[in-house]
Amino acid sequence: MKIQKTGASFIRDGDTITVAVTHEIKIGGESSWVRYEANSRVNQETSEEASERTIRFVNEGVMDAVMKTVETVRNHK
């Protein structure tokens, strides 16, 4: 994933990046929503590197949370 930037880096060391993703999933015809969020502090990296790192972490985390949620709901029925 490529993050576009315009001009100089808009994120500096010490700044915080928040990335959140919400997925709607259907389990047995019922809707459930899984939200996963991460806050990360930029540390000696470009804004692109910090953003990509945080986005990658959230995307991997939300998929794990979705799978665990489906398993939990199915086992609860």
Q: What Rg, in angstroms, do the CA atoms define?
A: 16 Å
Instruction: Work out the oligomeric state of the chains in this entry.
Output: single chain
Count of β-strands = 2
Main sheet properties = 2 strands, antiparallel
What is the spatial order of strands in the main beta sheet?
A: 1-2
Overall mean confidence score, pLDDT: 86
Distance between the termini: 38 Å
The percentage of residues in β strands lies in 25-35%
Describe the 3D structure:
- This protein is an alpha+beta fold and 77 residues long.
- It has one domain.
- Helices cover 39% and strands 31% of the residues.
- The chain is built from 1 helix and 2 strands.
- It has one helix at 47-76, and strands spanning 16-27, 30-41.
- A two-stranded antiparallel sheet has the order 1-2.
- Strand 1 and strand 2 (30-41) form a beta hairpin.
- The protein is elongated, with a radius of gyration of 16 Å.
